[in-house]
């Protein structure tokens, strides 16, 4: 069982497309995680996501090339109404909170309600505690690792701590915990012997 990140190139060949969503309150670092994963970059200048944005990256899993299309959804309340439309055809979702902001952790339950209401029951869910590099602020915010682990255990989903700034566990958050889904897709396409060559890349 192996996987590796691919290069971001125009018209890069792939065998199957997998859509992932990144959910969470504004300022938890969703866009930074996405930028780090897709382009291995970190921009300290915060830019608020308006509506939705997405990036793509091709990875190898189970001997197949899987194109991950990762959607970054706005965390502001006024954009909650547009979020449901993006659950359509999504195979995985990352629920992200900021370890220095208790309210973003508490609001994960609201985001989970959206997932349960709008997403396919088979969607792969992952709980992500971001900004691991800010340990001092974490202590003040009282958002311990054990709280995250307890919440993940309650929903029976994987839990992982990340830092987009320090590039800690970012690849693992996007790929490793979606590996079951990716392998399922890879095996399905192999079984069906779909002759998908170079597809249009966005």
Strand content: 15-25%
Count of beta strands: 7
Spatially, the strands of the biggest sheet line up as 1-3-4-2-5-6-7
CATH class: Alpha Beta
Q: Could you spell the SSE succession in H and E letters?
A: EEHEEEHHEHHEHH
Distance between the termini: 28 Å
3D structure, described in words:
- The protein is α/β, with parallel strands linked by helices and 202 residues long.
- The chain has a single domain (3-192), classed as Rossmann fold (3-Layer(aba) Sandwich).
- 31% of the residues lie in helices and 24% in strands.
- The chain has helices spanning 30-39, 102-106, 108-118, 135-141, 145-155, 170-174, 179-192, and strands at 3-5, 16-23, 52-61, 64-73, 92-98, 124-130, 159-161.
- It has a seven-stranded mixed β-sheet with strand order 1-3-4-2-5-6-7, with helices on both faces.
- A hairpin with a 2-residue loop joins β3 and β4.
- The longest helix has 14 residues, at 179-192.
- The chain is globular, with a radius of gyration of 16 Å.
- The two termini are 28 Å apart.
- The model is unreliable at 1-9 and 193-202 (pLDDT under 50).
Brief characterization of the structure:
With 202 residues, this protein is α/β, with parallel strands linked by helices. It has seven helices and seven strands. Strand 3 and strand 4 (64-73) form a beta hairpin.
How is this fold's topology laid out?
Elements: E1 3-5, E2 16-23, H1 30-39, E3 52-61, E4 64-73, E5 92-98, H2 102-106, H3 108-118, E6 124-130, H4 135-141, H5 145-155, E7 159-161, H6 170-174, H7 179-192
């Amino acid at each position: 069982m192996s996987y590796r990140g691919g290069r971001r190139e125009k018209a890069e060949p792939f065998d199957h497309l997998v859509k992932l969503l990144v959910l969470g309150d504004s300022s938890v670092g969703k866009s930074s995680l996405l930028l780090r994963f897709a382009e291995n970059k970190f921009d300290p200048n915060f830019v608020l996501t308006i509506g939705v944005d997405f990036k793509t990256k091709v990875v190898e899993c189970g001997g197949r090339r899987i194109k991950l299309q990762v959607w970054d959804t706005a965390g502001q309340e006024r954009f909650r109404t547009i979020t449901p439309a993006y659950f359509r055809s999504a195979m995985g979702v990352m629920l992200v909170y900021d370890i220095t902001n208790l309210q973003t952790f508490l609001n994960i339950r609201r985001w989970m309600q959206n997932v349960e209401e709008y997403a396919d029951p088979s969607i792969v869910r992952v709980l992500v505690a971001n900004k691991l590099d800010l340990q001092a602020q974490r202590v003040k915010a009282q958002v311990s690792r054990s709280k995250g682990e307890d919440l993940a255990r309650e929903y029976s989903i994987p839990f992982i701590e990340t830092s987009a700034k320090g590039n800690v566990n970012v690849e693992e958050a996007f790929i490793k915990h979606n590996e079951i889904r990716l392998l399922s897709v890879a095996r399905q396409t192999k079984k069906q012997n779909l002759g998908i060559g170079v597809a249009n890349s966005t």
